[in-house]
Hints:
The chain is an alpha+beta fold. The chain has three domains: 2-184, no CATH class; 195-292 and 314-341, no CATH class; 360-401, no CATH class. The protein contains twelve helices and 15 strands. The chain has helices at 15-44, 52-56, 58-64, 76-102, 131-134, 219-235, 242-276, 287-290, 305-318, 320-334, 380-401, 406-412, and strands at 2-12, 125-128, 136-138, 141-144, 149-153, 162-171, 174-184, 194-200, 206-208, 213-214, 279-283, 337-341, 368-370, 377-379, 419-420. The strands form three sheets. The protein has a seven-stranded antiparallel β-sheet with strand order 2-6-7-1-5-4-3. Strands 8, 9, 10, 11, 12 and 15 form a six-stranded mixed β-sheet that branches. Strand 13 and strand 14 (377-379) form a beta hairpin. Mean pLDDT is 89; it is low at 404-418. Residues 178-293 form the Probable transposase IS891/IS1136/IS1341 domain. InterPro entries: Cas12f1-like_TNB, RNA-guided_DNA_endo/Transpos, Transposase, Transposase_put_HTH. GO terms for molecular function: DNA binding; metal ion binding. Residues 320-388 form the Cas12f1-like TNB domain.
Amino acid sequence: MKIIKAYKYRLDVTPEQHERLMQLCGTCRFVWNKALSICNEKWKSGEKIPSSYTMHKWLPIWKKEEETSFLAQGNAVALQQKLNDLGAAWGKHFDDLAKLKAGKMKEVKFEKPCFKQRNKDSHNSIRIMQFSKYCRIENRRVKLPSKLGWVRFRKSQEICGEIKNCTITRKSGHWFISFQTEQERLDPVHPSEKIVGLDMGVKKFVTLSTGEQYKPLNSYRKHEKKLASEQRKLSRKVKFSENWKKQKRRINRIHSKIANCRSDYLHRASYEISKNHAIIVIEDLKVSNMSKSAKGNAENQGKNVKAKSGLNKSILDQGWYEFRRQLEYKQAWRGGEVIAVNPAYTSRTCPEESCRYESKENRPNQETFRCVKCGYENNADIVGALNVLSIWELGHSLSACGEGSLESSEKQEPRRNRKRVAA
């Protein structure tokens, strides 16, 4: 099987290379904005949005015009890739509109493409295709085209596979390079035979059906006061002045630190869980719905707005969706599997197979579970993880034995090769 894997490193650029990279990013950003303005005009007039192939034909014309002749100093491949990105963005938007019209979606996920701004780090990037033709790597240096020459990078790990392209981005005052590689691997077989259920939470980041728990990092909460203080300083400065720009960079560094700490924690936790379990059963949580504002509007005022706002902040601080994404691709690399099940009533249903009584009275508080019918007691988060695992096992039994009653499926179910991990 072929897999696509990226390796990201920090670049150590010289002042001259920094200026050149900023110039290349500026030309890509200008091409995006100019092409987008033309697309918007066609959209308003009812014409069809041109494809990325058609947009490529605009580049030679722009380079010959006096006002946009500076585009000739940019990287032609990077400019074409930026137009490809614009075409893909329009494509995703139209796909969502079609699904919305067909009733398959409730709201548009990918909005219409917007203009890129210079003062945003996410808008400073270039992509170079055909890496073997235009670039090469020697030890801890990479040779880049467009008069960049040899650039040092912090090679923290070896690059495996054939490099197809590289992307250079700027974030929080630093330059980074990502090498996208293609690797040929045999179909992986997970070394473990264990199955585990996961319960996501705010007090406990994740709880396993084995009883193991991971405490939340709460990266944003730890830096919240410092961030608020720096933002108040920013509000008292003249916008776009030199002092305002310096203060803006300080705030960006705090945001970057929060994101880096969260990302590091999620990678460590997902690596450990993925390494030890072949099948991971998780809750199919709709994070965007769970973290919606309770403020309401002028006619229908919301209830418990302050409490819900704090809960939303805690939910988004955990990074549940990113954690699930990391588990999925790491399990695919190892030959494992991630299965999402409906999380309804998992925290208030008795996990005992002979009981399975569901009632909100079973959970008198946030941490305690006590079944009012059979008297079973345990931590509420562990009970949730056990129920998540039980939901998958029930569905697995029914699919293995065909439709029928639960009793018949339990009798006819073949012995599984994998081990159930439970408390």
